[in-house]
Design a protein that fits this description.
With 134 residues, the chain is mostly helical. The protein has two domains: 36 residues, no CATH class; 96 residues, Tetratricopeptide repeat domain (Serine Threonine Protein Phosphatase 5, Tetratricopeptide repeat, Alpha Horseshoe). The chain has seven helices and no strands.
């Protein structure tokens, strides 16, 4: 185990269980928290943390870049296309926003975000499209 919050120290399994007990948090499965993870899962977690950090700082350019890396790992994740599409729209990148939002709408999600649908309609009008066709 590696504790990234304490300088990369390497606590034992028993020490980690003691820390959890001391925290007072009751969990259904402590072992699931301590299970080994793949490199892909570590990378996904790092990219999620970057997205949150860039969102908090209001750094849309880096947030969009981090979402791009997340989409390379999760191209099936419609929510990421929604998030990136709305960010592109806020940044005035209308063609990129259109592409992401069309992909989001075409993903088969059961309940589509109403804001995304309004933005998509506006983009189609602005770019002279109907139904997403040129």
């Amino acid at each position: 185990f590696v504790d990234p919050f304490n300088g990369g120290e390497q606590p034992t399994h028993a020490e980690l269980l003691e820390r959890l007990d001391a925290s007072g948090v009751t969990l259904p499965s402590v072992d699931s928290l301590l299970a080994a993870v793949t490199r892909r899962q570590i990378l996904q977690r790092m990219l999620i943390n970057l997205c949150v950090a860039y969102q908090t700082k209001g750094d849309a350019v880096r947030w969009i870049a981090a979402l791009g890396f997340r989409l390379r790992l999760e191209p099936w994740n419609a929510a990421l296309y929604l998030e990136r599409g709305l960010l592109h729209y806020q940044q005035g990148e209308n063609r990129l926003a259109l592409a992401d939002l069309e992909r989001y709408v075409g993903s088969g999600e059961q309940e589509l975000n109403p804001r995304a649908l309004r933005v998509l309609d506006n983009l189609r009008l602005w770019l002279g499209r109907e139904g997403g066709k040129a």
